[in-house]
Automatic annotation (TrEMBL):
Residues 109-159 form the DUF5651 domain. This is DUF5651 domain-containing protein.
């Protein structure tokens, strides 16, 4: 088997192919727009068209090696992205905002309470710690997590495991 042929792409290779698609579109756009504005010569436009042709040949050859499912995945990705140029300062600001945003977790209330219930099953069941010694108590209280209802003196979230008895036992 030819070591260059493979019928699928890794994620980075898919991104590279998406960049090729963007490059082809960019070369074609520049060729037409700049020629129409009169800022490139016919020879310059010919160079751009030649570059576009070779980019297309490469792209078509590579996609012809891929299986149908991979080609569809690639084309769907290509339809769903834009290439933009950003100044470094803008990128830095966007990264800082993303970091700030990642400091918070957003969940629907019922999902959050399900998570809390799972955490309580591990940490609060039969717990003897006093509430001031527990990191979870303040988090639960600040987020209005329902109390256990057991009324234990050490913590309002602590509860006792209830043994279920089988009928006839």
């Amino acid at each position: 088997m030819n070591k260059y042929k493979r019928d699928y792409l890794h994620e980075q290779e898919r991104k590279d192919m998406m960049m090729f698609a963007a490059l082809m579109g960019g070369v074609e756009h520049i060729s037409n727009a700049w020629f129409d504005r009169g800022i490139i010569t016919k020879d310059m436009r010919k160079c751009l068209k030649t570059a576009h042709t070779y980019l297309m040949k490469f792209f078509e050859t590579k996609t012809n090696e891929l299986n149908d499912k991979e080609v569809k995945k690639l084309l769907d990705k290509i339809k769903d992205f834009d290439v933009v140029l950003l100044e470094n300062e803008k990128i830095k600001k966007m990264r800082e905002e993303a970091e700030k945003e990642n400091q918070w977790v957003k969940l629907y209330r019922d999902e959050f309470e399900d998570w809390c219930e799972e955490i309580m099953n591990v940490n609060c069941k039969n717990c003897k710690k006093y509430h001031s010694e527990c990191k979870l108590h303040d988090i639960f209280a600040a987020n209005r997590v329902p109390e256990s209802g057991f009324g234990l003196n050490n913590c309002r979230y602590a509860y006792l495991e209830i043994e279920k008895r089988r009928r006839g036992a």
